[in-house]
Q: What sequence folds into this?
C-alpha cells in the first residue's frame, strides 16, 4: 500500500515569517510528486508537479525541492502573508490510472 | 480559465436515501475522478473513469456507489443507500491526459451530510 506522509499537520506563523514543510513518499517506482494548495471553501489547486531528482520549482514566494532517492519533498514559503493561509497537500501518482494518493496535508495559518 | 463545477455545494440526506452528486469536468478532458475527504482524514481516491467506463476503483467504492457520464458533459456519482459514514466532502476532478505528471483539476466539492 502506497503511503504519503506530511509534517507538520499544522503550522501557525506570523506574517513575514518564512516556513517550510515536508512530504515523504515511496522512493521506488517514482514518476512524479504533486503539490496542491487548498484554501477553505475553494477547490484544491495544483502548485507544482515535480519529476526529476534534485528538481526545484518556484512560483512567486513559494518553492519546492525534490529528492527521489530518499523519498521526500520540501515546500518553502518565503515571507508568509495571510493569503498564504491554506492546507498544502502533496500527492503521489500510483496504480494503473495514476490516481493521486494524498498525504494528510499541512494546515498553514498566517497571522497578520 | 476553464474549471470543474460541482453541484450541489451542500447536500443533506437521511440514512438509506439515494443521492446523486453532479460534476461538469473541463470540456476537453478525458480522465475523470471522484475523491472524498471525511473530516479530519486524508483525501481518498474513490474511482477513475475513462472512455465511458470505470478504469480503477478503491475498496471504498462498493456496490452502493456508481458513476455515470450520461450525456458527454456531466459526470455523476450516485450513492444508492447512504450511511452515516458516507458523510464527507466529495470532489470531482479531471485531467486531459493520463500521465503521472499531469495535474488534476478539482471542483469546489459537495459536502454530503447523512443524518
A:
Amino acid at each position: 500500500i502506497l503511503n504519503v506522509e506530511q509534517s507538520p499537520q499544522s503550522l501557525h506563523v506570523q506574517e513575514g515569517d518564512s516556513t517550510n514543510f515536508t512530504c515523504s513518499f515511496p522512493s521506488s517506482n517514482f514518476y512524479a510528486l504533486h503539490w496542491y494548495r487548498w484554501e477553505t471553501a475553494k477547490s484544491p489547486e495544483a502548485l507544482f508537479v515535480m519529476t526529476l531528482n534534485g528538481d526545484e520549482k518556484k512560483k512567486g514566494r513559494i518553492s519546492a525541492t525534490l529528492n527521489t532517492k530518499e523519498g521526500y519533498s520540501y515546500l518553502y514559503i518565503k515571507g508568509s502573508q495571510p493569503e498564504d493561509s491554506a492546507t498544502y497537500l502533496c500527492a503521489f501518482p500510483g496504480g494503473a490510472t495514476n490516481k493521486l494518493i494524498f498525504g494528510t496535508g499541512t494546515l498553514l495559518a498566517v497571522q497578520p | 480559465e476553464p474549471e470543474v463545477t460541482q453541484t450541489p455545494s451542500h447536500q443533506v440526506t437521511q440514512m438509506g436515501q439515494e443521492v446523486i452528486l453532479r460534476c461538469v469536468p473541463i470540456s476537453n478532458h478525458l480522465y475523470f475522478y471522484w475523491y472524498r475527504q471525511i473530516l479530519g482524514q486524508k483525501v481518498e481516491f474513490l474511482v477513475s473513469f475513462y472512455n465511458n467506463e470505470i478504469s480503477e476503483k478503491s475498496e471504498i467504492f462498493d456496490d452502493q456507489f456508481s458513476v455515470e457520464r450520461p450525456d458527454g458533459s456531466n459526470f455523476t456519482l450516485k450513492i444508492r443507500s447512504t450511511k452515516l459514514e458516507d458523510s464527507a466532502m466529495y470532489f470531482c476532478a479531471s485531467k486531459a491526459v493520463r500521465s503521472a505528471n499531469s495535474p488534476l483539476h478539482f471542483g469546489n466539492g459537495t459536502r454530503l451530510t447523512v443524518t
